[in-house]
Amino acid sequence: MKAVILAGGEGRRLRPLTQRLPKPLLPLPDRPVINHIIYRLAKAGITEAAVTIGFLGNQIRQALGNSLHGVSLTYYEENVPRGTAGSVKNAESFLDDDFIVLCGDGVFDFDLTQCLLFHKESDADVTLVLTRHHRPREYGVVLCDPSCRIMRFLEKPDWTQTFSDTINTGIYLCKRKILRYIPGNSRQDFSSDIFPRLLQENFSMRGYVAQGYWCDIGSPSSYYTCIQDTLKGKIKDILNETTRQNLYKAGSGYYYQAPGVLREEDTVVTAGSVLSENCRLLRGSMVDGAVLFPDVTVGQDSRVDRSVLAKKVSLGKEVRVQEGVVMGENCEVEAYCSLPTGSSYQADTRIYFNGHRPFSDQREDLFDVDGIPIPLSTEEAVKVGRAVALAAEGDKIFIMRGSSGEEALLANEVSAGIMLAGKTAKWLGEGHYAMAVFAASTFRPSTLVFVTKDGNDKYKAILLDDCGLPLSNLARRRVENMYYTPFPDKPVGKSEQVEGCRELYLHSLVSMGKPLPGKTFYVSANQAGDYLSDAMVSLSANIRRGEPEKPDEMYLHISDDGRQFWFKKDECTADFDHIRGVILQEEAKRGIHSFSLPYLAPRIYDTLLSPFGATLYRYLSVAGENEQEARSLAAIQPAYRDGAAAAVTLIANFTEKDGFHENNLMKALTDLPPFQTVEEEYFPEGGDENKASLLARLSSAGGKGKEGIAFSTGNGFIAVTPRKNGFRIIAQSYSMEAAHELCTDMKGKIRGILGENENHKTP
């Protein structure tokens, strides 16, 4: 039997320890975690293993080589994350018979020989190695019948849903034929994708409850616990003879001290501590149950309590590192600082003394362009909810979520964080982005948290203010500060259900429209289209769902997030930018003199409104100063940021007592001046490294900095706005070709500033 070791993950929950070190290489206490896994394979008689690598994979290659403990190693690299099953599929050519799958960050002392024997005797298609745990809800829970046949499993359930104390260890024994059921070139996980499918198709799936120790090193706290269990002798055969020679007695326990550690006079090290190679403890310093990676310096009279410090951390004189601190590689702490309990510091952070408490000059950005990315991690979601609640000025924290189970899970954990901060979590239920905007504008909360999934299948929490717009920069900073501060003790808040949001939204849409008796429209068959359909039916229109077969029927399409709208009829397709242009003109004709749109909305809108003496206010995606008038106005003009509202308003503007005048609408579109908008992305070779200097150079070249750096040219308008690891380029011109040309020219300018090759490709 061959083995596949999954070692390609980024270890995000273990950051900052894994910013520059793949999690399978975390030391335990002196050898990488993955070494212990390979040792268990060798003891079970397995001599060949595939190692799937991705993030910092070369470090794993260099650390392990081509063989270890008599097990030959073959590496399979992933350019994009493939999930647990997708990673095994990637190594399919290596596998010629039954195989065993293990995670590269799981520590155990199970007898794998017994697992292999059970799998062989049961003749199962898949055997899951299970263990018992007193807190099963943190893992995948599995239920077996008396014959060990798997009946049911559920990933990380609530306590009310927990049906067993046996959990999935991430060790699987499989027949080769199951590889046929793993799609290629896509992200697939065993627990969420493959096993439910196999169970449904009546494959033989068995569970083997192993006896012994198991720990999933998924967070700094679980890693620290595993270190302590190692030093306390709770894990069989984890320490080899060389490691044992470097254990030293301290009270009733032991600490580990590698050769080459420098300890000056009057230093104290207690049980549970790990001093890795080349650590330096200066005079009078103390390490109390802390884990120090190689090359850490503890300054004179400094103290480190039960924390984890990554490679090359340097502490100055009389520094106090309190319990639960985690520091990334190459951090430096100035003399006399005190780092608070539970604080975390990214790699290369410099911490200075300001007379009261430390502050950091480097911290990983919490927000991306329009929200806070949240991994499928309950711990992170709780932290986000807590930070939002603590930063909010009032008690009204509303929550809305998308329709998937994952969004529901994350929203529940965000709610828990809000309650732990002593605030009230007010539930609005399920909806899309546009409905969240409506709810924020209607209920006027301190903050509304919308938990959703973006177009790249990434989950995030979008935070909206009482105008239904993203939080201001100042409010974002407050959230970030609260996210990175220790957890304060607060009386637990409560959760309340807010009824009627959907009904209010529909009523709002209907109130914008006019009766349409007998008129037939086709509406997109998605959730966002459901709301528009219901509103149009209330206006007496005939509604059909999906695209029409005949081109002369009008088709109204609402984007899945509800934010945009386009329609098609005959040879005409009108996008959201042109629809908004028509609505602006028609509303201005009717005497409305003030409008509010995003800062990067087409510049042609100002020209359209000029004959009517109307004013167009523009607001930034992240509000700056003196924008309250624009944001308040946007809150009462939903047609420019809500697709369904735009559809109802557009049709109402061309509906009279004798019905809907399609020809007038088509003429209004035709009469618009020609304009097109193009959006592209550019990812420099250095990622975020040169982002600030590039923006400065663009500004000095004549760009105007308000939202990104913008230029007005003879052919139109172009803006460069920063995003994670790159830039978004938005060009507006009289034609699509001219807009693309502006983008191409800007990319050339960026390449010139950065000194990049002309053939540099954007992923």
Walkthrough of the structure:
The protein has 763 residues and is an alpha/beta fold. The chain folds into 5 domains: 2-216, Spore Coat Polysaccharide Biosynthesis Protein SpsA, Chain A (Alpha-Beta Complex); 246-360, Hexapeptide repeat proteins (UDP N-Acetylglucosamine Acyltransferase, domain 1), CATH 2.160.10; 372-499, Alpha-D-Glucose-1,6-Bisphosphate, subunit A, domain 3 (Alpha-D-Glucose-1,6-Bisphosphate, Chain A, domain 3); 502-671, no CATH class; 676-754, Alpha-D-phosphohexomutase, C-terminal domain (TATA-Binding Protein, 2-Layer Sandwich), CATH 3.30.310. It is 29% helix and 27% strand. It contains 20 helices and 51 strands. The chain has an 8-stranded mixed beta sheet, with helices on both faces. A 7-stranded mixed beta sheet has the order 13-14-17-20-23-26-29. A hairpin with a 5-residue loop joins strand 8 and strand 9. Helix 8 (378-391) packs across helix 11 and helix 12 packs parallel to helix 17 (643-653).
